[in-house]
Design brief:
The complex is a heterodimer of chains A (261) and B (486). By secondary structure, chain A is an alpha/beta fold. Chain A contains ten helices and twelve strands. The longest helix of chain A has 15 residues, at 95-109. With 486 residues, chain B is α/β, with parallel strands linked by helices. Chain B has helices spanning 8-24, 42-51, 56-70, 108-117, 146-151, 159-165, 167-173, 184-192, 433-441, 446-462, 467-480, and strands at 131-136, 139-143, 155-158, 197-201, 211-216, 227-232, 237-245, 253-255, 258-263, 268-276, 288-298, 304-311, 316-319, 322-325, 331-340, 345-354, 360-370, 374-383, 391-401, 406-415, 421-430. The chains are: A alpha/beta (261), B alpha/beta (486). At the A-B interface, helix 2, strand 7, helix 3 and strand 8 of A face helix 9 and helix 10 of B.
Chain lengths: 261, 486
């Protein structure tokens, strides 16, 4: 599904990703952990095509297509979804309206029939049930005045409606209390399927108690330096990142200690 | 949208009747187009009045206004760059070609244009249920729904007709809200106004439908000088819609309208405008100069006047729909979206004059600037000595798209009563990269994202508009903002 090879990317002239490689197959859940400033959020932004992120080398193949050639909205239509670390407020724009516009824009792009309001509403109701989200959320403006937890839940709800093939969750757990965390994780788990893949970026092993990953990777110094199964996350939780310096002497200790974000 | 809610036959008959009345009045001469030659003088004012078959008092009123106008300097306080206007180069009257007896005879091109603009002359669903007094150049070509309105006792007709047939009412109210010498452009309008609409809602009547006028400027070098007068007697209510577009042209066109609203005891007037005149091209060539004086007088206790405007057109907009809150507990509202793109300039806002006790006013202004557009909000909140407990809330938001545009806010407050509460909130924001990326990452393309964000920004104003108008307003903003990003 996704093959990232030797990816180098710059933001404002500073190289953040320095040769990142990662392969994600259909149906897999990959957790990416790492110290602050390692490039975790940059990876999400590069994959979804944010302006200002300059790819200087490497390639990203997504279902055989060069993902880097596509505009952000084309990537969305192709099934790439980014759940934002800081979801953006759009005052005055109704949440439901926004979501329907997004879904129909994607469908149109894929040559599928657009959903009329009746069918869309039916879909939304189904997803609300699965996500255990109150429909009060639908009537408000996009993220406007939402609490931190509501914003994150709204991201997952959007994901549920848009049904992407590759979902990137950028620190979706940050700022959530345990109940909200469970709810968000429950939403993600409900969406797991053999043809949908997840990249879960997180600081904490805690999330992985609820969303069980197939693979865990450590992103440090702009590349994946260690990969393993769920036990790697447990080890990181217990021991931090410093031990990685012993097996990767080229990594500066500062990079493992967490450079200022 | 369902098609056809009105029989076109009945419709045609109505229009025909209106046109025939004009014949009876000897209004239409046998020449093809009776325009006055360019220029302005007492003689022209007299000719204009004669051409319109007006009574002597009207002619004198015009002449007095003209003489006053001659003594006035051109206002220069607005934040607008305006090339000097040659008032002698303007033709002050132009009527469409004579001889139309029914809609079938109306120039098909005109009908086509109306169709594109969605003007429901042969009632299309969009504005079904709305009476239309369409102004083509300076004279009404058709009026619909007159019968229903007449049954309710409502008078809705062209100003020319009102002067001839309801002279007493016109004489009583015209100029009572905007005096002839009020300002430079109002004086000019008073001297040379060509036509407009007249609405009278008698005591206790709730106007059974929304009244609507579409204006359109057509003939070259023809200034448009609309004059509208709306009177709501005690306990009466009316919602009035005004919408305009103009075809592409290169000459700057002068437009100076006057709108007067009078609300008596407990009366309510809701006045909505969608203005989409030709704004000029990307380089600022052409476009309409729009100098408008709009004022409502809440003369009666517990009366209410509400202005809602969506301004996307014109090269220059100079416009401050205002409320004089004379009656106790009267309420004034102003909801505005003004968009300037390319080289458009707008200096617009409102005046709320609190005179009566416990009077309330609310101002919500949304300015959007794109390209090299310059957008100024200029508003006055004035609380007179006797206005105990007066209350004003002003919210003034500006949205910038791109780096070369400008937004300016000039709030004025004069408060002479210590019990008054006056609030002002202002924000200026840009469509952020974050918002754009958020929309795009969900699959929404750039242009759609911008119009969605702008639409959200304007929501507070749009929801004050009648439904059909809100849809149109949204579409207008989309069209007006094409090419604003990227």
């Amino acid at each position: 599904m996704l093959k990232i090879d030797n990816l180098h990317a710059r933001v404002e002239g500073r190289e953040i990703l320095k040769g990142l490689s990662l392969t994600v197959n259909a149906g897999e859940v990959h957790a990416i952990m790492g110290p602050n400033g390692a490039g975790k959020s940059t990876l999400g932004h590069v994959l979804s095509g944010r302006e200002g992120y300059e790819v200087t080398a490497g390639s990203v193949l997504y279902n055989g297509v060069n993902l880097l050639d596509l505009e952000p909205e084309e990537r969305a239509a192709a099934g790439v979804f980014l759940a934002f670390q800081y979801p953006v407020e759009i005052p005055g724009v109704n949440n439901t309206y926004f979501l329907r516009a997004a879904l129909n824009a994607q469908r149109k792009h894929r040559g599928e029939e657009e959903l009329d309001s009746m069918r869309f509403l039916k879909l939304v109701r189904e997803k609300l049930k699965v996500m255990q989200i109150s429909d009060e959320l639908l009537h408000r403006a996009v993220n406007e005045g939402f609490s931190g937890g509501e914003k994150k839940r709204n991201e997952i709800f959007q994901m549920a409606v848009l049904e992407p093939k590759l979902a990137i969750l950028d620190e979706t757990d940050s700022g959530l209390d345990i109940d909200a965390l469970k709810q968000v994780a429950g939403g993600v788990n409900a969406l797991r399927s053999p043809d949908r893949s997840f990249i879960v970026v997180t600081h904490y092993q805690r999330l992985l108690d609820y969303i069980e990953p197939d693979f865990v990777h450590v992103l440090a110094g702009g590349r994946i330096v260690e990969s393993g199964d769920k036990s790697l996350a447990v080890k990181l939780e217990e021991q931090g990142y410093a031990w990685l310096a012993d097996i990767h002497p080229d990594l500066a200790r500062a990079e493992l200690a967490g450079a200022p974000a | 949208m369902t098609p056809e809610t009105l029989s076109p036959v009945r419709d045609n008959a109505e229009v025909e009747a209106a046109l025939n009345r004009r014949y009876e009045a000897g209004f239409v001469t046998d020449i093809e187009s009776d325009s006055l030659p360019p220029g302005l003088s007492e003689d022209i004012v007299r000719q204009l009045s004669a051409l319109k078959n007006e009574p002597a008092w009207m002619t004198d009123w015009r002449l007095a206004a003209y003489r006053h106008w001659l003594t006035m300097p051109t206002p220069d306080w607005a934040k607008l760059k305006i090339d000097p206007i040659d008032y002698q180069a303007v033709s002050y009257y132009s009527a469409p070609k004579a001889g139309l007896k029914s809609l079938d005879e109306v120039d098909p091109k005109l009908l086509e244009t109306y169709e594109k603009l969605g003007v429901p002359l042969h009632e299309r669903a969009r504005l079904a249920g709305v009476a239309v007094d369409a102004v083509f150049d300076s004279v009404s070509v058709g009026t619909t729904f007159r019968k229903e309105l007449a049954e309710a006792g409502v008078i809705f007709c062209s100003m020319s007709e009102a002067i001839r047939e309801h002279g007493d009412l016109v004489r009583q109210y015209m100029g009572s809200v905007v005096p002839t010498g009020d300002n430079y452009f109002a004086a000019l309008n008073s001297a040379v106004f060509s036509d407009g609409s007249f609405v009278f809602i008698p005591k206790g009547v709730r106007c059974p439908m929304e009244l609507s006028t579409y204006f359109r400027i057509n003939a070259i070098n023809t200034g448009q000088f609309e004059r509208t007068l709306i009177i709501c007697e005690d306990d009466a209510y009316v919602s009035y819609l005004e919408g305009c577009t103009a075809p592409m042209r290169d000459e700057n066109q002068l437009h100076a309208a006057v709108v007067e609203l009078v609300a008596l005891e407990r009366a309510q007037i809701k006045y909505s405008t969608v203005q989409n005149w030709y704004p000029g091209d990307e380089n600022g060539v052409g476009g309409i100069y729009n100098f408008v004086t709009k004022r409502g007088d809440c003369r009666g206790n517990d009366s209410k006047i509400s202005w809602t405007q969506v301004e996307t057109g014109s090269a220059i907009t100079w416009k401050y729909p205002s409320c004089i809150l004379r009656g106790d507990r009267s309420v004034g509202e102003f909801y505005s979206v003004a968009l300037t793109h390319h080289r458009q300039q707008a200096d617009t806002g409102t005046k709320m004059i609190h005179i009566g006790k416990q009077t309330k006013s609310k101002i919500v202004s949304k300015g959007i600037s794109a390209g090299h557009g310059q957008n100024s909000y200029r508003g006055l909140v004035k609380v007179e000595k006797g206005a105990d407990g007066a209350r004003n809330y002003t919210q003034c938001d500006s949205l910038l798209i791109g780096k070369r545009c400008g937004a300016h806010t000039f709030p004025y407050m004069e408060v002479k009563n210590p019990t008054a509460i006056v609030e002002h909130e202002a924000t200026t924001s840009k469509i952020s990269d974050d918002q754009m990326f958020y929309c795009r990452s969900r699959g929404i393309g750039e242009e759609d994202a911008v119009s969605m964000i702008v639409d959200g920004f304007c929501k507070q104003v749009f929801r004050e508009l009648p439904m059909e108008f809100a849809v149109e307003a949204k579409k207008l903003l989309e069209v007006s903002l094409e090419g604003a990003v990227g």
